[in-house]
Amino acid sequence: MRLVHASLPPGTYGTVVAVLDEEGVDYTVMEAAGDRYTHLVTFPLPTSAVEPVLERLRDVGVDEDAITVVTEAQTIDSRQYEALADRFAEEAPSEDRIAREELKSTADQLASTPSTYVTLTVVSAVVATAGLLLDSAATVVGSMVIAPLIGPSMAAAVGTVIDDADLFIAAAAVGDYTTEAAASKIKSGSPLTVEFEPTDKVVDAVRAAAPALDMVCFKAEVDDEQTLLAEAQALRERTESLFVVANEATVMGAASTTVHLVGSGPDGPISGEKSAVAAAIIDAVVTARSEDDE
What 8-state DSSP symbol labels residue 66? Predict the structure, then answer.
């Protein structure tokens, strides 16, 4: 059993109440102080009903900008709740299903702080090294227990499942062309012509799936600098990216590079070792995102 508290942005009260009435949910409503939210609605739900009901509320405007709190309830005395529990027991017999908000909160708790992550990783590496030098399997296994990798891995998996991302850096491009699979084995001994077809652009697919997602794209060309910058600007406008990192493809495999941050960052190119250029790109991402938040 769960007790849901949801703040309602202006203009959503009527539609939210209509959704709850349609779902057969008991609720209480209080007026909220301030201009950001107009009402606070509280209602009990069976565990399996939380996500479907909240999904309907998201559709009518109770989105990520609203405050939604889901807590565990010990006892709920309501005939309407009992009918609701029976209905969702038939529709979703598994009680293991939890709401997106609960899943996200649990995942956040699994992820370590940066300082804890670095410290435990270093300690784990030292213990693993000692285990290898001592030829001790038990010590190596112990280092795995110390390593803080399971929590972040599970949190990353949850983030992927619930589509919870606020930044996409497309630092590598998939193949620009592909071929159709042959219907049968291709016999050898005769000339062969292979036809290539353009692949779908990943950045375009990501932008279509997440219109509000911050993006940083990369553009590499072998043409002159003027053409490179023009194509990078066109890419930025098409994908609505924070900026596009443009560089010549001739630097691939080299230790140093020169890039242009089209749409953000300092005027002129950034040159140096690739690690230093990467750090400058991350700084530009942080600056661009902070400017968007202001």
Answer: S
Q: How far is the C-alpha of 62 from the C-alpha of 117, rounded, in Å?
A: 35
Place of tokens 């949190």: 155
CATH superfamily assigned to domain 167-178+195-293: CoaB-like (3.40.50.10300)
Question: 159 near 139, Cβ under 8 Å?
Answer: no
274 compared with 112, residue with greater pLDDT: 274
CA 31 – CA 40 distance, rounded (Å): 6
Map residue 271 onto helix, strand or coil: strand
240: number of Cβ within 10 Å: 12
Taking the CA atoms of 237, 238, 243 and 249 in sequence, report the sign of the dihedral they define: negative
Element spanning 2, H or E: strand 2-8
- 218 contacts: CB under 8 Å, gap ≥ 6: 170, 171, 172, 173, 244, 245, 246, 247
Q: What is the CATH architecture of 2-97?
A: 2-Layer Sandwich (3.30)
Q: In terms of pTM, does the model score above 0.85?
A: no
Secondary structure of residue 4 in the 3-state scheme? strand
8 Å CB contact between 51 and 100: yes
Give the tens place of pLDDT for each residue, 59-69: 877 776 778 88
- The position carrying tokens 């209080």 is 30
Beta bridge partners of 45: 2
Sort strands 214-221 and 243-248 into parallel, antiparallel or unpaired: parallel
Cα(first)–Cα(last) distance of the chain, in Å? 40
Distance CA 206, CA 216 (A): 12
